[in-house]
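hey so u asked for the seq, here:
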Amino acid sequence: MPGDGSAARNTRARRGLRQGPLEHLSGARVRVQVWATDLWIPATDNLLRIEEAGLSDRVFPIHADARSLPFAEAFFDAVVCVDAYIYFGTDDLYLEYLHRFVRPTGQIGIVVPGFIQELRGPLPEHLKPFWAQECWTWHTVEWWRQLWSRTELVRVLRADSLPDSWRLWHKWKKARQAAGDDSPGLASDIQVLEAEGGQYMGFHRMIAEVVPG
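ran it, structure tokens below
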């Protein structure tokens, strides 16, 4: 789903579904309408942010679970999900559900935390202070590519690990700390990322085109 809603001449409005805590998507020369779908943040709270940004005519907040989406089939030109797909998308059947909402040749894109290499054997000692049960949903980019490709519902256009993503992750956590965030575990997360240095953890991105069926 292209991004900041900038208008383009002779370009129809394109519809996109956004899932997860994404502030905005950067793009150019395409006017978009966005259904900003979130389970954890009330739609009213998101509406206030949308109005502050002056985008209430093109971004529409929805409060919904990703497993029960209130949209018509083939409604969207694209779906983008950032930092949330691991909570539901590891289900072998989820892509079959999600792709129904995207028109043929439309695109699905995700960014997820994951492993640069698969964990084999016990959890590395230096990761234990960081670890939570949700981390068992993390996988390598090749694992994700195979999960989608084998369905033949989509054609994977790109699947890779974001360069130096652990550094950006570390920078974000340091910024939170500098802003006075005293969340439990934040300091230890920073220490783990510094010790880790991208050996195991990072972010993956994947973009796929819905195959006409």
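Residues 165-178 form the longest helix (14 residues). The mean pLDDT is 86.
lmk if thats what u needed
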